[in-house]
Amino acid sequence: MAPEMAPEIQVSRETFEPYALLLQREGVERGLIGPREGERIWERHIYNCLPLATLIPEGARVVDIGSGAGLPGIVLALARPDISVLLLEPLERRCAFLREVIDHLALPNVTLERKKALDYLGKFDVVTARAVAPMNRLLAWSWHLLAPGGRILAMKGDRAEEELAQSPLSRYQGASGEICEAILPTGGCKVISIAKAG
After folding, report:
1. Which fold has domain 13-196?
2. Could you tell me the CA-to-CA distances from 45 to 38, 71, 129, 159, 196 in Å, in that order?
3. Model confidence over 171-192: pLDDT tens digits?
4. Which of 50, 70, 103, 165 is most buried as measured by Cβ atoms within 10 A of its Cβ?
C-alpha cells in the first residue's frame, strides 16, 4: 500500500500534546505504560506510531486490536480525522482509560468495544496492531475482520522479516504479505502488511 494513498498527515506536536499528557500522567499512574515510559512518550510511542497513518487509505474503516493505552489507534485518529477507528480492548481497566481519552479529546471518529478481536464481528479496511502477538496468532485472531481488499498493518521491530517468513499465509485464502517502512520527519516504523485479495 503506497504512502501516497493517504491524505495529508497531522504531524504538529500540538495535535498530540493533550494525549501525550494523559499518557504521561494517568497512563503511568494506572500502569498502562511503564513508569520510565513517561519520559519517552514522544519518541517511543507517539512518533513511533505516527508513520503508520501514511499507510492507511483515505476514509478507511480501521480496527485497532488490543488497543491498550490507545497505541496506535488514538494516534491514528488524531493524525487522520478522515478515518474511523474502532478500538478493540478486552480488559476493563484499559477500556476505562480509553473512554476517558475519547471523551477528553472529543474524538468523533473513535469508538470503543470491550472485546477480543476473535469474538468481534465486523468488516474493516484496515486492522492495526502494535505489540499484541506474533504474526501467526495475529492472523488467526483478525483475518475474519478484514473486508475484501483490506490489510492487516502490524507494527513490528527488527524481527519483522523473520515473523513474515514464519507467517502461515497459505492457510488464508487470498493472503499476501510484505514489509513496509513508513517514514515521516518525526521518525519511522517497520510494518508487516498482510493483504486480503479483493
Report:
1. Rossmann fold (3.40.50)
2. 10, 7, 13, 18, 28
3. 999 999 999 998 888 888 899 9
4. 70
Joined grid coordinates for residue 134: 506474533
Question: d(Cα 111, Cα 98) in Å, to the nearest integer?
Answer: 10
Q: Report the b/e string of 149-161 with b at 16+ CB within 10 A.
A: ebbbbbbbeeebe
pTM, entire model: 0.93
The three-class DSSP label of residue 57 is coil
- Inter-CA distances, 30 with 24, 153, 161, 171, Å: 10, 28, 34, 39
CA 126/CA 105 separation, integer angstroms? 23
Q: Which three cell numbers stand for residue 64?
A: 485497532
Residue with cell string 498530540: 16
| pLDDT tens digits along 27-85 | 999 989 888 877 789 988 999 999 999 999 999 999 999 999 999 999 999 999 999 99
Per domain, the residue ranges of the chain are: 13-196
- Cα distances (Å, whole numbers) of residue 49 to 93, 109, 159: 22, 18, 17
**Residue of 51, 62, 70, 41 lying closest to 123 (CA atoms):** 62
